[in-house]
Task: structure prediction
Amino acid sequence: MASAASSCGIPKWERKARFFLCVFGVVLSVYALHVELSKESNPDYRAMCDLGESVSCSKVFTSRWGRGFGLVQFFVAEDHVLNQPNSILGIIFYTLQLSLGLSASSRAAMVLVLSSWVSIAGSLYLASILFFILEDFCLVCVSTYIVNLALLLINLKRRRGLPGLREKAA
Result:
């Protein structure tokens, strides 16, 4: 099995899957940011992901839930520096996942799992807003939910596979 893992103990399949998922997540997040900023500066802008009245990512990204999960505005002004587009948080999350994924430490594995659970909670919250309040389908949003779920599964597998954590659980 030595050939399946790198010198730092991270399996090759995990490195490749994490790299693909994180890069895809960053690309989706950058595109979401581009769509939001383009729509704000030009109301006539039509994104590639706007396929119809009820399949529109720009409608979602420019809604109140597109910034700070729609929650930050209750604590700070709408134009406050803390009320950032969700896509900025996505870029930070995927960069964190990619960076911490390079470490084989148990602490990094724990942070990866915890941050993935937070992303799943955020995905479930935003998916419920998407479907029940906005009554929209956003291809970019749903794609990020899938990426987040896949990262969670990879992170759980890594955490279970670490010898130190396995012994503590027994």
User: Anything to note?
Assistant: Helices lie at 12-41, 57-61, 86-100, 106-133, 139-161, 163-169. The chain is about 65% helix and 0% strand.
